């Protein structure tokens, strides 16, 4: 039986990293990152998530060394202080915190749970989701749902889009003004909805695909219009506020787009950047990015501290549940392997005993049943103590004992490479005669059996 692997993770996020560092971590997409991780030695499962303020990856390996090595290349150009690493338990807890919004720039934001779900689907499509990460990510999504239904963690400012609008309102008077939203994805939609709650006079939604922009424009009550990206040089200089949130790998706005602008606040909440930083040096242009939103969200964080503590108690409860389930699974794997190995020996020895008894005379069904019952009782009594020990080992996080048991009682121990009859584990090695009695089986992989 194959041993259940453990998770290791790595994170480059807004709490310690800059926008550029987040952008540089991982591959170009979730699927690319997962595919790269799966190609590394020892990696059995992989999950990755990329948002505007985090880039993270998690792998499942049998070896801690393999897990660490696989993740070493995830953020090679990022400062060590900006990279967080997690062991198995820390990974489980972190995924729950991410899905519940506790790790978000805007505490309790709603869209993160959808982003985790999308990352899960992308990772699955890349072949990265197996039994361990299946349990981990679905548990995180469950916690995220509980956080939003059982607490008020998501009340108030819950998105970067709404935080951007609040920041703009502190900088300029939006009354009767024009706001341009660049991008019709989730973040752009949230920004447009937030603008709908202000006194702005017009919202221009610009997007590569105009029908998508029109869809966003139709969702709000404020006077709005949808335009293609090629119209940006005409609409940006006339705007009071520009919020950019596209998924473009390259900047969509540079200094030329602001020619003729009098006074415009531009807030870039895209990852990677939508706006060339040089635009912020122009007279009349105030450029902000994700890093600047921390001040705007501080008030929200203070208001939600009590709710965050409630969410943390949910996480503690759910983390304990999944860890206990994980421990039981590890112990059950070893116990199942132990009983499977013993049962094969029991069946073999019963057959031999019955064959010998039948050679000495007729054997009744009752006598055969007596032999079977005696063998079953011996196995049960001999394995009762090891079973208790393995369950105790799981409860005490003694994985070395469980690992040893799995190695000793691998169900394939009497089917080595090349055919049946022995095993690398030595419990029934190729040197063991096919008619050897039970007590001829070596006590350890290194013990020789005399013919």
Automatic annotation (TrEMBL):
NADP(+) binds at residues 183-188. Its EC number is 1.2.1.70. Pathway: Porphyrin-containing compound metabolism; protoporphyrin-IX biosynthesis; 5-aminolevulinate from L-glutamyl-tRNA(Glu): step 1/2. One of its GO terms (molecular function) is glutamyl-tRNA reductase activity. Residues 409-451 are annotated as: Disordered. InterPro entries: 4pyrrol_synth_GluRdtase, 4pyrrol_synth_GluRdtase_dimer, 4pyrrol_synth_GluRdtase_N, GluRdtase_CS, GluRdtase_dimer_dom_sf, GluRdtase_N_sf, NAD(P)-bd_dom_sf, Shikm_DH/Glu-tRNA_Rdtase. Residues 167-296 form the Quinate/shikimate 5-dehydrogenase/glutamyl-tRNA reductase domain. Substrate binds at residues 51-54, 104, 109-111, 115. The record marks 94 as: Important for activity. Coiled coil: none annotated. It is an enzyme of class 1 (oxidoreductase). Residues 311-410 form the Tetrapyrrole biosynthesis glutamyl-tRNA reductase dimerisation domain. It catalyses: (S)-4-amino-5-oxopentanoate + tRNA(Glu) + NADP(+) = L-glutamyl-tRNA(Glu) + NADPH + H(+). GO terms for biological process: protoporphyrinogen IX biosynthetic process from glutamate. The active site is at 52 (nucleophile). Residues 10-151 form the Glutamyl-tRNA reductase N-terminal domain. Keywords: NADP, Oxidoreductase, Porphyrin biosynthesis. During catalysis, the active site Cys acts as a nucleophile attacking the alpha-carbonyl group of tRNA-bound glutamate with the formation of a thioester intermediate between enzyme and glutamate, and the concomitant release of tRNA(Glu). The thioester intermediate is finally reduced by direct hydride transfer from NADPH, to form the product GSA. HAMAP family: Glu_tRNA_reductase. Belongs to the glutamyl-tRNA reductase family. Possesses an unusual extended V-shaped dimeric structure with each monomer consisting of three distinct domains arranged along a curved 'spinal' alpha-helix. The N-terminal catalytic domain specifically recognizes the glutamate moiety of the substrate. The second domain is the NADPH-binding domain, and the third C-terminal domain is responsible for dimerization. PANTHER family: GLUTAMYL-TRNA REDUCTASE. Catalyzes the NADPH-dependent reduction of glutamyl-tRNA(Glu) to glutamate 1-semialdehyde (GSA). Homodimer. This is Glutamyl-tRNA reductase. It comes from Halorubrum alkaliphilum.
């Amino acid at each position: 039986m194959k041993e259940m692997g453990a998770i290791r993770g790595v994170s480059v996020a807004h709490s310690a990293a800059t926008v550029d560092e987040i952008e540089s971590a991982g591959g170009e997409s979730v699927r690319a990152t997962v595919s790269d991780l799966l190609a590394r030695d020892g990696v059995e499962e992989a999950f990755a998530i990329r948002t505007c303020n985090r880039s993270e990856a998690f792998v499942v390996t049998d070896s801690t060394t393999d897990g660490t090595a696989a993740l070493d290349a995830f953020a090679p150009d990022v400062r060590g202080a900006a990279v967080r690493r997690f062991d198995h338990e820390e990974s489980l807890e972190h995924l729950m915190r991410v899905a519940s919004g506790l790790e978000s720039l805007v505490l309790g934001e709603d869209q993160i749970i959808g982003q985790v779900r999308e990352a899960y689907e992308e990772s699955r499509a890349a072949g990265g989701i197996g039994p361990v990460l299946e349990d981990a990510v679905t548990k995180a999504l469950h916690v995220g749902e509980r956080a939003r239904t059982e607490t008020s963690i998501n009340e108030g400012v819950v998105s970067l889009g709404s935080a951007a609008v609040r920041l703009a309102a502190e900088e300029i008077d939006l009354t009767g003004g024009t706001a341009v939203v660049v991008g019709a994805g989730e973040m752009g939609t949230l920004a447009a909805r937030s603008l709908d709650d202000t006194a702005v006079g017009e919202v221009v939604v610009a997007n590569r695909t105009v029908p998508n922009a029109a869809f966003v424009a139709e969702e709000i009550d404020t006077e709005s219009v949808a335009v293609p990206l090629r119209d940006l040089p005409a609409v940006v200089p006339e705007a009071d506020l520009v919020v950019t949130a596209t998924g473009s790998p390259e900047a969509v706005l540079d200094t030329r787009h602001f020619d003729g602008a009098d006074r415009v606040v531009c807030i870039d909440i895209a990852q990677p950047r939508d706006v060339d930083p040089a635009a912020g040096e122009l007279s009349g242009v105030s450029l902000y990015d994700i890093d600047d939103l921390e001040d705007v969200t501080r008030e929200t964080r203070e208001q939600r501290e009590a709710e965050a503590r409630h969410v943390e108690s949910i996480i503690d409860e759910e983390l304990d549940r999944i860890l206990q389930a994980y421990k039981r699974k590890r112990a059950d794997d070893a116990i199942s392997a132990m009983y499977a190995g013993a049962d094969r020996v029991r069946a073999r020895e019963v057959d031999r005993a019955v064959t010998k008894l039948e050679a000495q005379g007729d054997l009744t069904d009752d006598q055969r049943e007596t032999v079977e019952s005696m063998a079953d009782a011996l196995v049960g009594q001999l394995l009762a103590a090891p079973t208790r020990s393995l369950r105790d080992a799981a409860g005490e996080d003694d994985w070395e004992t469980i690992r040893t048991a799995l190695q000793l009682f691998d169900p394939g121990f009497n089917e080595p490479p090349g055919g049946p009859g022995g095993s690398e584990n030595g419990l029934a090695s190729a040197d063991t005669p096919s008619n050897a009695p039970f007590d001829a089986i070596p006590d350890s992989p290194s013990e020789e059996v005399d013919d």
